[in-house]
Amino acid sequence: MSPNAIEVVGLSKSYGKVVALEDVSLEVRKGELVSLLGPNGAGKTTLVRHLYCELRPEKGFVRVLGVDPCDREVRLRMGVTPQEAQPYGDLTVFDNVYYAARVRGVPRDKAREMALETIRRLGLWEHRDRYVMDLSGGLRRRTLVAMAVVHSPEVLVLDEPTTGLDPMGRREFWDVLRQLKGEGRAILLTTHYMEEAEALSDRVYFINRKVLAEGTPAELRKRFAFYYEVIDLEEGKVYKVREDEVKEFVAKLRGKFEVRAPSLEEVYLEVMKGA
Amino acid sequence: MLRELTSLIEMSFRQMKAYLAVNLFFAIVFPVAMIFGFSYIVRGPAVYYFVSGVIVLQVSLSNILSVPQNIGWDRENGRLSLIISMGVPLWAYAIAMTLPNNLYAMGSGLLVLGVAVAMGYLSVSPGGLAMLILALLVSSIQGSMVGLLMAARIRNWRLLQQVSQIAGFGFSFFAPVYFPLSVVPRYLLPLAMLEPTTYAAQAIRLSLLGDPASFVWDLGTVVYGAVMAALASKWGLKA
Known about the structure:
- The structure holds two protein chains of two kinds.
- Chain A is an alpha/beta fold.
- Chain A has ten helices and twelve strands.
- In chain A, helix 3 runs parallel beside helix 5.
- Chain A is globular.
- Chain A starts with a strand and ends with a helix.
- Chain B has one domain (2-235).
- Chain B has helices spanning 2-18, 20-38, 46-76, 79-85, 90-118, 126-153, 157-173, 189-194, 196-208, 213-235.
- Chain A binds chain B through residues 49, 52-54, 72-73, 75-76, 78, 80-86, 88-91, 95, 99-100, 102-105, 107, 131, 133, 147, 157, and chain B through 3-4, 7-8, 10-11, 14-15, 17-19, 77-79, 81-89, 239.
């Protein structure tokens, strides 16, 4: 049995003459959190839309839990938060989560039990009877995630789930993701926030229509760390120094200094610049 | 799939609760006010055109206007994607979306009749009432199919809003709804026959009169609705 929860092989997609994806391959193993990073228009959302059968591949194929995601049964084992999707504003938090379970075929009593449990777990308990339209952006996002996880899916696909959240809301959301990952779910996350990917991911894919780089955040930083930042704290100056010259460079400094490897964001910018 | 479908329908009814005041206003107060308000100036045989016209307006607004707007709004907010991701076919979503509108339109139509009868405006035989229920059912489904077709064909939210508003009101006032089909000039007849409300209005008015010719217009309404459904199915509802 394949250890991959998500498998994308040679996926290509065009919109007219615009190529959105070109021979993209990636995998998310069971129990792993993988982030997709790329600029706007890089094809992240197009890729995600293939994972829940909103789009069909032109070339290549997609498998979720070893099955074509257009098979309805496998979508019942997935939880998805599509980009910019909003819960139903004219339903309460409870109703949104409850019906998310019901439309997936969960019996009434069980759905009620699961909805209440999920609402409690995601910190929505005190808001459960409020209409979603009356909630803040962060609580709406959390409601959307609750709708995605209420039926205990094995695979989670979250398309930019933290966009628009304030730093506090984002940190709270990270805790939720860590909790879900800790439960052994496979999670594919698309994000624009490098610190988010770095803090949460087991592995990262940089994509811009095609896969540009892949690895753990540490591997990527190591692979693309062509220089170090040396900060002269006495002078308040920042120098970019090649790896093989660092020792020699810092030996010449007088006073305190700091040596810093490039962040994932700097690596990302480097990779995208060369793409 | 039946369980999932009934859950979606139940959810649609729940959604109506959030806007209960406006829903009740348009379902009850608005038609009642129309009948009361125009009772002084509408007299004689014109009453049948007026009452059937108000019923057609309710059907048109609840389906030709509301169905595409609701679907467009859900699409705009990514909820069609959400529905697909939950493994629910969009046809099931479309049924769940249109059914409450159909029931709403039918209930409202019967209320209009009830008020008109209570005011002594007109009387309807039991046979006529049965014909009216049938006419309301097919008209409402036909209106939903027109709305569904608009939602399938027009994916730009701004455009869909405009087209559905123009269609919802236009088909109510620029079709032989409040006046007889016979007064439409010959050169405009083909256009009138392209309007869905032409069929619904004749079926509803004739049913009030207890005229079996209502069934012929019911059939026309069904055929029209079936063509719209076939086209909507061909183009498909997309997220």
